[in-house]
Amino acid sequence: xxxxxxxxxxxxxxxxxxxxxxxxxxxxxxxxxxxxxxxxxxxxxxxxxxxxxxxxxxxxxxxxxxxxxxxxxxxxxxxxxxxxxxxxxxxxxxxxxxxxxxxxxxxxxxxxxxxxxxxxxxxxxxxxxxxxxxxxxxxxxxxxxxxxxxxxxxxxxxxxxxxxxxxxxxxxxxxxxxxxxxxxxxxxxxxxxxxxxxxxxxxxxxxxxxxxxxxxxxxxxxxxxxxxxxxxxxxxxxxxxxxxxxxxxxxxxxxxxxxxxxxxxxxxxxxxxxxxxxxxxxx
Amino acid sequence: xxxxxxxxxxxxxxxxxxxxxxxxxxxxxxxxxxxxxxxxxxxxxxxxxxxxxxxxxxxxxxxxxxxxxxxxxxxxxxxxxxxxxxxxxxxxxxxxxxxxxxxxxxxxxxxxxxxxxxxxxxxxxxxxxxxxxxxxxxxxxxxxxxxxxxxxxxxxxxxxxxxxxxxxxxxxxxxxxxxxxxxxxxxxxxxxxxxxxxxxxxxxxxxxxxxxxxxxxxxxxxxxxxxxxxxxxxxxxxxxxxxxxxxxxxxxxxxxxxxxxxxxxxxxxxxxxxxxxxxxxxxxxxxxxxxxxxxxxxxxxxxxxxxxxxxxxxxxxxxx
Lengths: 283, 320
Ligand SMILES: Cc1cc2nc3c(=O)[nH]c(=O)nc-3n(C[C@H](O)[C@H](O)[C@H](O)COP(=O)(O)OP(=O)(O)OC[C@H]3O[C@@H](n4cnc5c(N)ncnc54)[C@H](O)[C@@H]3O)c2cc1C
Ligand SMILES: Nc1ncnc2c1ncn2[C@@H]1O[C@H](COP(=O)(O)O)[C@@H](O)[C@H]1O
Fold this sequence. Notes:
The complex is a heterodimer of chains A (283) and B (320). Chain A has 283 residues and is an alpha/beta fold. Chain A has helices at 39-51, 75-87, 104-118, 137-145, 221-227, 237-240, 269-279, and strands at residues 2-6, 9-11, 20-21, 28-29, 35-37, 53-54, 60-61, 64-71, 91-96, 122-126, 149-157, 164-170, 174-181, 184-188, 198-199, 232-236, 248-254, 264-266. Chain A is globular. The N and C termini of chain A lie far apart (56 Å). The model of chain A has no long low-confidence stretch (mean pLDDT 97). Chain B has two domains: 4-182, Rossmann fold; 198-318, TPP-binding domain (Rossmann fold), CATH 3.40.50.1220. Chain B has helices spanning 17-33, 46-53, 72-83, 95-108, 214-227, 236-240, 271-274, 306-318, and strands spanning 4-7, 10-11, 14-15, 37-43, 61-65, 88-92, 111-116, 118-120, 127-132, 137-143, 148-152, 169-171, 183-190, 203-207, 231-234, 261-265, 282-287, 300-303. Chain B is globular, with a radius of gyration of 21 Å. Strand 17 (248-254) of chain A pairs antiparallel with strand 10 of chain B, so a sheet runs across the interface.
């Protein structure tokens, strides 16, 4: 099974409250914030690695994971691709682009060009990028390819090398189960990090992965060493010949208004109830 | 002048509240640009839902009856075809809207502004404000394509009130899509609850990792939830641990809520959790650790052990 995983670099999401706006109000400034792998892509990478390994045997890869990142061709983007390679992906592709020229239409057009070249069985993506929080690129990619998309997948089962997959996806009101015939795009939910989220027909059924709290697996020392030798193809938008017309233009950025009140530390339950009932008048 | 089509979201043959939030946004767009709006009722039971949706002042209600479970592949072609005559397509940024509308947008070659919190119609020119970076930045965006696709954040748009009247209805043809044959809907476990929906409750009580078990949610959190007539929410840690179902998650990847009162119990207040609740009017934190980051947004903070405090709070609330 060959899987394409898209990874975006984002300004450290855990410190997003430190972001600023440029003096003319037209750009977000993330100075001083480290570039990180979009955590949602880290989760989808974990799903892709599980689909392409025999987890019962150490380092037993049974498929190929190709990473694609679109962004500036610099040390930060390269480091993030290496991080994915160190976790186990086979190779990387860096499509050079100025971040200001990207939106979901452009990203999905670029990813389509890569899919056309690489012919993967699946594309596994984060459901959203932690900077723009859009939730758009995966579904647009699927439509551009004429493929199905399964958004917010929490469980993926296949026994025929990804040709057909049974996927559970999260809804607002419960969980739906669908059977998909690949090739397909899958975006993943938080629950894809659960110990039993993936069955690939190779890893013994019932295998339980270690519980992951925050993100996907850590790279092993060996993985980090191997990643140094794994190839990263670099290409430009011109090489891919895609339409790069943006469909969105951000005119203005603003910081959210601060919450007005100060925190009142209440004494006890009686004090809390009194404040909520008589001061805030919310109960 | 923008003519707007609202894509309704049906659950078991009825329009979800999310639809009415999208109607509110559609009205703002239509009124601000001198246009009008229609509603597309689509899915199983679209006909009956269309009758209900006829009371919200739309020019007309289109209906497309599609049997069986929802997949975006099954609906998108019909929505795109119906949407051809409109300038803006609007749905709620629920799991449904986020799944369906980008597929429709790609069919129409339209740009998508997702999860918007505000509509602007300055001089008839549309732009939208949307939260980004887990609510730490607001961007105002214009869509450059001829057609525009928008999903709206439920907590930022009051559900439209019924305006009486009866919009005429019209059947639209259901379109096929080869991609739809690639997805077979096997079933859905719909979670039924007597409680208000997280999306539109006045009071939300959420529990975190500190609850330590599903039983404690049942025995400690639920009585307070019910005493307040609230909806129940949770942190990701509590959902991941299986204490409660995933659809109760509040935050960047879960639901975004903005009730009058939000009570966070045993929740530290990670940036991704705050993303889903910091728009609440009054925020209460109950936490052992007074340094917990939830203090950044809490109006009232009770430093205490939840297991001692919450049952007492429940009793006190019952006596009000
Ligand atoms: C990409 C990404 C997206 C995410 N999306 C979300 C999201 O949508 N929603 C979300 O919630 N999280 C999300 N998270 C996870 C988030 O970062 C935190 O890990 C999570 O919110 C922590 O949950 P918690 O507050 O319940 O647990 P903890 O952080 O462990 O906090 C538990 C709290 O309980 C207190 N406590 C312990 N015992 C008691 C007691 N007996 N009485 C009173 N207080 C007690 C502690 O002092 C502590 O403050 C996301 C993370 C990432 C990386
Ligand atoms: N510049 C990029 N490079 C690689 N992948 C991207 C990029 N932008 C978006 N994506 C992918 O698209 C997903 C959804 O992003 P979005 O629609 O922007 O929220 C992300 O989780 C990424 O996997």
